[in-house]
């Protein structure tokens, strides 16, 4: 199955390719070597050590290699078929990839998690010089020596002569800096040769076939869990079937296929229910668990996923991660190796209603005096640490993400609308009794009624709330159509600066939270790594 | 206000001398789709549309001093076509790249000598190796406008990086190149004779000023001008309206007088500006049209525009202000009241993009 929808289409400017296609079947190493020799070596000359100039001197993620191959087509006219691209990415990502430790802090960019505010190292100026256009993760997910980073700098200005004129370039001797100090700094931060990579190359990789217990959460829809059966179909390729259940107890079945790069980078496509999804998961170094995110073509919509092998013991998730003191709730607990009962600690009882291989359904009852806070969930040998909350009242509601971006789209254009998904998350004050401090306890996402308003004077003058889009009942903000709007002042686009408001009912009280949304223009160039 | 009265008088004479009795103003504006429009602002109509060879739109327009030829940067910022405005035929062309191994572009920086004989282009080049690129030092290439088609530079000389505009002094002795600072270059030798400070200014409690302007709009007055912006480092950026300041930089291309004077706490974005022939006022444009008193250094009036415009120019008598660039209409405004007097639509709605507005007399 090929999915032809997202990724480099925008970068290509014409229907080029097809990140999803990388998940469809492997190709032999000799195919890749033949393409390297026939196509790549025409320009990348053979080095004395047998490698190819530039190509041999860097390491990248599968997405990183894929973007390189697509760029070679766009900028240099090097045509490769989807099969050849798959073979090349597999070959290069396996031999010149990143170790699990090297990607661990930057998985959000591979997973396309929306609205991440990055933690950029303060030392040096890489944040300003590189991450003013790219995510910092995009830089951090490459490994080169200083002289190779320097070549990347030459490529940047050579290809985009305006780079030195842009804001945060023109205020300094940009080229003088990025052609001297920056490559040295990057070579130290992200060098080609590392112990982590050397060790990972040597480490045997576990085959992933077998039965896995999974659980995850899809903002705006809810949690889910169940079983994933993985069958080996070839070298690092698998067929997958899903037998899942949603938070409201409905079955969710699916099937797909995947390819594993670099020994741990799971990339899959699947049909889940009636939705086509892409999967970006990382397998743990010991091969016993997987974690990641799946998403739709508009990758802002998706969910997290954690999987462990059947035969291990873990509580992975719950249909509802909280109960109010003095109240009852029906809760599904998902996991592996679950016991006959569920223990939620003192003052909370859990009467088993139903049990399956991957779940236990319980009626939870919290005593009026049950202690508020996070609790471990235990079932036989399986445990989930601090994943269930008891509360007496919702002290605060936070809109998460607190700051989000949506983008106008559609309206006859090729770029779709990019929505923003919000959740209203209940919190109780921590031991300090004050809201908004680090010791606040997260109860979990709660049903809310949503509204939005102009954020500030300019938004009010421009009537942003009137034009920028609409909020759906589940906290999904869907922006308005793209293009100049003659009904607006200046005929401007349907952009806006909005205050997002969530109201959560807690008994007789209503607790409100606020977030901020910027609705902005389209992203014309949306490669797999932003 | 430090602009000299002598410069004012000299320039007024120069403008008067350059215009014959029956000549009148025309606007030249280049667009995407490689159409050049000649607009008669007095008649409020498009006089003529030219097809310009090349692709990637017309990104910079420099008219010859006699108004007969338009030098148009096109081909993805990679060359110039000189178009005879009478015949509509190209009489000059050059491809900046002189070999297959070196790709040369210009970031919109170009001007012509007062006698119309030499065209100056700031260029940035990259050497295209097999597996890698090498950024080369930037240069200014000088073309003989009589070289005809496939012109090659008659000389080149090294030039500072990041130049965004060139402006030739009226005596032809100094080529001004705007970059981090305003460099004064000997147009014969390329020697940097001096500089006016921009980012290198020594104002107390002030960040280096920021300028991003690619619109040469000085032909009506011989005074180059551009808005600049900076932050006060001694003010609270979140609370104090004094924390950000806007000013107008003027460089008199006849006298060499150079002034950077603030006129307001930053309250609007301004992309480009033009000085009135009366030398007392400047007009700045973006989504608003602003009128600035250059003697009192204050904002006189600001109006909202129907949409964003990048470039602003002015009639020879100083009575009408023209706004253009972005989209496909030119607004005619009263210089006195800023009222909109007319809107001239470009047929076919060709997008001016960042193409600018130049004035000629014919």
Give a structural overview:
The complex is a heterodimer of chains A (530) and B (362). Chain A is of the alpha+beta class and 530 residues long. Chain A folds into 4 domains: 184 residues, no CATH class; 100 residues, Beta Barrel (Lipocalin); 77 residues, Sandwich (Immunoglobulin-like), CATH 2.60.40; 125 residues, Immunoglobulins (Immunoglobulin-like). Chain A contains 14 helices and 27 strands. In chain A, the strands form 7 sheets. An 8-stranded antiparallel barrel of chain A has the order 3-4-5-6-7-8-9-10. In chain A, a hairpin with a 4-residue loop joins β24 and β25. The longest helix of chain A has 15 residues. Chain A is globular, with a radius of gyration of 25 Å. Chain A starts with 8 loop residues before the first helix and ends in a 10-residue tail after the last strand. Chain B is mainly beta. Chain B has one domain: YVTN repeat-like/Quinoprotein amine dehydrogenase (Methylamine Dehydrogenase, Chain H). Chain B contains 1 helix and 29 strands. In chain B, the strands form 7 sheets. In chain B, strands 8, 9, 10, 11, 12 and 13 form a 6-stranded antiparallel β-sheet that branches. In chain B, strands 3-2-1-29 form a 4-stranded antiparallel β-sheet, with no helix packed on it. Chain B has a 4-stranded antiparallel β-sheet with strand order 4-5-6-7, with no helix packed on it. In chain B, β10 and β11 form a beta hairpin. Chain B is globular and about 55 Å long. The interface between A and B is medium-sized, with 29 and 28 residues.
